[in-house]
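subagent[fold] <- orchestrator: predict structure for attached chain, return tokens only, no commentary.
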Amino acid sequence: MKARLKYPIFSFAPKGNMIYVFRKEELYTTTNTELLKKRKNYIVVDATGTKYVEKGAHKVKWQGILGYCIRMQGRVISIEYEYGDSPEPFPLRKLQELVAERYPKTRWFKEECWNSADEFRQAIFACKTFEEVADILMPERKTSVWQRIEEYFLRAGFLMLAAMFLYHVVWRLIQKVWIWATG
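subagent[fold] -> orchestrator:
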């Protein structure tokens, strides 16, 4: 069965501790071939509180140039998921309990500067919607127009400096080779 998911979605293994949050369909349906082999029977909960069980996935197309992409290791593909025939309701409280139990056991918990597991649990149980839980697990990156313009100019400036440096180095090298060759 194919499903129309409402984002953000939560994806987790039945027995693992890591809970993944996907805010866009593009991020959820892009993976590499190695991760696809490991991914079996994952549970997906969407923002409407519906639980789906992944029964399989198949490749739709390669991403990048024949699947080779700088951002990810291995060959990158777009996939389409197949879900079990009977989606079930998954209440917010149950998701909160699952997150509060599993997430503090992951290595990412300490890296995200939570002082204690109790503080994290209080923050999770204070959430009123699935979106709020998603914001705690994976805050949405918000940039203003000014920050984007600034980022663009910094990148463009760096690329111009790199091009000038390479031009200078290559030009000097060509000059030295020419002088050596013509004597």
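orchestrator: received. Logging for downstream: Strands lie at 9-12, 19-22, 30-32, 43-45, 50-62, 76-83, 88-89. The CA atoms of residues 158 and 164 lie 10 Å apart.
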